[in-house]
Amino acid sequence: MAANSPSASLTVVPLARYTKKELGEILGEVEDPFGVAYTGLTWLAKERHFGIRRDGRLVAHTGLVTLPVAVGTVETEVVGFGGVAVAPDLRGQGLARLVVTGAREHARTMGPRFGLLFCRPHLVPLYQRLGWQALPGKVHVEQPEGPAVMPLQTMWTPLRDGERWPEGPVRLRSLPM
């Protein structure tokens, strides 16, 4: 990152709390902050939160949660990434890269071999630039009324060097994050 970049001197810090108030600080008061209400899905809250503050204002966030997943016949866990948000007036300045990468560094200490996220199609190139890979095929997630096909793009990243995503159908044994 260039020294004159606005995000050059910013750091990712753990957040003691992250509520609608903090989300509003980043994105303002909006009805559907992540643009996923159309999916009709119920989402799981994240357990660990990381953010970036600029001049005292929270301007970016990523949340993490450990989740069970089945891939083919393999039962394992993943670190789910979600709630990625960057203040609209600061987009395009490297804050998404900084906050997601900072959260990923913490996720590497949590145990699971993989990170997993769901995103809208127009965000796939952003996450690919950050080292995430798209999972082909359908991914099933839990919902209160039973399993559902995830309508968003599912992406993964290794949390340990040399890891490869296993072969087989994917079923998140949890609400999506």
Features:
177 residues, single chain, alpha+beta, ten-stranded mixed beta sheet
Topology record:
Elements lengths: L11 E3 L5 H8 L20 E7 L2 E15 L2 E13 L8 H13 L6 E6 L4 H6 L3 E2 L4 E3 L6 E2 L3 E6 L11 E3 L5
Parallel strand pairs: 4-5, 7-10
Antiparallel strand pairs: 1-2, 2-3, 3-4, 3-10, 5-9, 6-9, 7-8
Could you characterize what this model shows?
With 177 residues, the chain is α+β, with helices and mostly antiparallel strands. It has helices spanning 20-27, 95-107, 124-129; strands spanning 12-14, 48-54, 57-71, 74-86, 114-119, 133-134, 139-141, 148-149, 153-158, 170-172. Strands 1, 2, 3, 4, 5, 6, 7, 8, 9 and 10 form a 10-stranded mixed β-sheet that branches. The longest helix has 13 residues, at 95-107. The radius of gyration is 16 Å and the shape is globular.
In short:
By secondary structure, the protein is an alpha+beta fold. The protein has a single domain, classed as Gcn5-related N-acetyltransferase (GNAT) (Aminopeptidase, 3-Layer(aba) Sandwich).
- The CATH homologous superfamily is called Gcn5-related N-acetyltransferase (GNAT)
- Tell me the radius of gyration: 16 Å
- Can you tell me the overall shape? globular
Q: What order do the SSEs take from the amino end to the carboxyl end, as H and E? A: EHEEEHEHEEEEE
Average the pLDDT over all residues and give the rounded result. Answer: 95
Structural class: alpha+beta
Count of separate structural domains: 1
Strand content: 25-35%
CATH topological fold name: Aminopeptidase
Distance N to C terminus: 29 Å
CATH class: Alpha Beta
CATH architecture: 3-Layer(aba) Sandwich
Helix content: 10-25%
How many strands? 10
The major pleated sheet works out as: 10 strands, mixed
- Residue stretches low in confidence (pLDDT < 50, at least 5 long) are none
Number of helices: 3
